[in-house]
Amino acid sequence: MAAVLAGAQSLHACSFDEPVALPTKESQRIAVRTQQILAYETGVGNVVDPLCGSYYVESLTNKIEEEATRILEEIEKMGGALEAIRTQWFDREIDAASLRYQKEIESEERIVVGVNAFTVPAEEESPVGAHQIHPESAQFQIDNVKNLKATRDQKKVRLALEQLRQDSGKGESFNLMPAIIEALKAYATRSEILGTIREVYGYPYDPLEVVKSPFSTH
Q1: Separation between Cα atoms, residue 57 and residue 152, nearest integer Å
Q2: N or C: which end of the chain has fewer CB within 10 A?
Q3: Residue boundaries of the structural domains of the chain
Q4: Which pTM value belongs to this model?
């Protein structure tokens, strides 16, 4: 409903079990019914702006615009988005906002139904069951990747990733697709390709810090 009132042109309601598994038939049906109730019962889609003329909504809209403009001006002053990425300004701001949000929840300054108010005991099991990947299937994929890395031409992989690394440093407007395609032809993995690009922009090669960068000098 909030998305529709905000002017969304298309809407997708996620099923309730998507955070932990592939959607089940039952959860997907509930998600679809949610959209159908909005479309056919509420009448919220019958006009372009259901809340037109609401002083409260307009004031909130103005507040969002003012705050967004302030942030954009701050980014512009520091030299643009690339500089904000290089100095990890985005990361610090996101971390600070997440910390504020969590503190508000823990102090109950912000009420989140089912989290810090109106809670019920945790379910012992999923009401519809969660999709489980068979251990043998997972191990099969792991073995395939290990075999690929052991049998591919390591020199070609290294050269292709090095070219991708150089191209990534040429700016956000530079087309990386040719270098990515060549890396794939050399059988570089997706994590190796993304890690190479991430590292150029100042992010960890592996967000989980498990895999070491092939370009590391340490």
Answers
A1: 59
A2: C
A3: 11-50, 135-200
A4: 0.49
